[in-house]
Amino acid sequence: MGSMSNETRPLTQTPWEEIDKRVRRVDEDRWISSRFAPAAERRALVALYALAYELVRVREAVSEETLGLIRFQWWREAIEEIEAGKAPRGHDVCLAIAEEVVAGRLKPGALQKLVDGYQLAFLDADRAKEPEGWLGLTAAHILSPVHNWAGDLQAVAPAYAAARRHASKAFGPIVSPAPKQLRPAIAHYRLRKLYCEGKTPNPFTKRFSIMKAMNTGEV
Predict the structure, then answer these.
(1) CA neighbours closer than 13 Å in the CB half-sphere of residue 159
(2) What would the pLDDT profile of 17-45 be if each residue is shown by its tens digit?
(3) Rounded CA gap, 140 and 157, in Å?
(4) CA triplet 34, 12, 43: central angle to 5 degrees?
(5) Which residues are CB-contacts of 188 (< 8 A; sequence separation ≥ 6)?
(6) Which of 108, 110, 45, 62 is nearest to 81 (CA)?
(7) Which of 79, 104, 188, 219 has a CB 3.0–4.6 Å from the CB of 33, allowing a cystine?
(8) What contacts 164, CB < 8 A, 6 or more positions away?
(9) Alpha-carbon torsion 73, 75, 77, 83, what sign?
(10) Burial 62-90 (b: 16+ CB within 10 A, else e)
(11) What pTM value is reported for the model?
(12) In degrees rounded to 5, what are phi and psi of residue 185?
């Protein structure tokens, strides 16, 4: 009688550690907020933010409109294939998205709308049109599908984004405290106060500010 193998096999083919490190490097604000989410939802947030990075950096990677459209279409088709149950393409973010779609934490329709939004901003060469509000809503939905903070979120997200890229010194709207369950998706919006003052906060300052938002819901 043969002995049972002691070999352990990975539960996932997705290089989550590498993706997480990438999000931390390119989008530290959202990455810090995501640390407060439960483990499963944290992965979904990381997958979402990794996709957003791939989409937003099209404007940096190409200068020709046609080449940009090809990249957006590549992501659109990759998401369609995942929704159809096909094997994900060999891109680590595709692997991550596929896992989270299967788990029900990411919705292909929401991701397609994200692609559309970044494509529009690219075509119009206008970062103010990037779908910050939709990105925030999609992140919030991972944590709580039903909430009453959608209007506040859509109001504050563009203000945060404009302040972060130093396109505006306006603090933006005063909004109601965010529901506790949503805070890991939106606590970084509190950093708009520092950004609109022209400051570039260090990691410690960011963590302190985001921790305060987590405790109070005030962003």
Answers:
(1) 22
(2) 999 999 999 999 999 999 999 999 999 99
(3) 12
(4) 10
(5) 29, 30, 32, 33, 160, 206, 210, 213
(6) 108
(7) 188
(8) 29, 191, 192, 195
(9) negative
(10) eeeeeebeebbebbeebbebbeeeeebbe
(11) 0.93
(12) -95, -15
Amino acid found at 139: A
Residue 206 three-state SS? helix
One-letter amino acid identity for 141?
Answer: H
Secondary structure element (H or E) that encloses residue 180, with its range: none
For residues 219 and 120, give the distance between their C-alpha atoms in angstroms, rounded to a whole number.
28
102-158, pLDDT tens digit by residue?
A: 999 999 999 999 999 999 999 999 999 999 999 999 999 999 999 999 999 999 999
> What is the rounded distance in angstroms from the CA atom of residue 21 to the CA atom of residue 215?
25
Residues in the chain: 219
Assign residue 104 a region: left if phi > 0, alpha if psi is -120 to 50, beta otherwise?
A: left
Sequence letter at residue 68: G
Whole-angstrom distance, CA of residue 34 vs CA of residue 46? 7
- CA–CA separation, 10 and 88 (whole Å): 17
As a whole number of angstroms, the distance between CA 104 and CA 83 comes to 11
Q: Which residue has the tokens 């991972």?
A: 142
Give residue for tokens 């088709």. 77
